[in-house]
Amino acid sequence: GQQVMQIPQYQHVQEGEDFTTYCNSSTTLSNIQWYKQRPGGHPVFLIQLVKSGEVKKQKRLTFQFGEAKKNSSLHITATQTTDVGTYFCAEDNYGQNFVFGPGTRLSVLP
Amino acid sequence: GAVVSQHPSRVICKSGTSVKIECRSLDFQATTMFWYRQFPKQSLMLMATSNEGSKATYEQGVEKDKFLINHASLTLSTLTVTSAHPEDSSFYICAQLAGDGTGELFFGEGSRLTVL
Hints:
Helices cover about 0% and strands about 55% of the residues of chain A. Chain A contains no helices and eleven strands. The radius of gyration of chain A is 13 Å and the shape is globular.
């Protein structure tokens, strides 16, 4: 089945530093979604990217979808302690099922 | 507010017993419900996709006789872990697609199962 990989697995940053997580697939993705899961919580939808080369912003978060639709990135500018959590990318395989990447666990030191 | 209500949030049971987890759709009808399992500090692993009124589709390696899924109505899907063993201890979480066609997944709060 399809697989999406994410790097890094863990990231520790000082508050105010930037953070980026990357999602990669060996096959072309129909779309890519990003979710955030706070410690002890459930995943919450952040965004969906569909078009090749698409870039979307949500305040300090910038999401990109690669031109070949095989990779994506999430960049957080000037991290805050509220950004702590695990960030997952996911592909919905044309609506049939949702496959999640392994996630990047972000910790932010105050 | 919550779109998907899942309970129980935590359950502890003895080995060999069965546990039922319920997910209710609150804001819109869920034709399809996804069931995931998450071990500590790991990703979400899709177990099965349940469809209202039909048999669930299980992912490879998931025992359908052990993890019984029922989706009898558009607002309720259940997962029953039968004859639970300690290795079944995990975080089980359901999710449904948004009813507006955006492709967004709404997750339940999750159920943490501990089998003694």
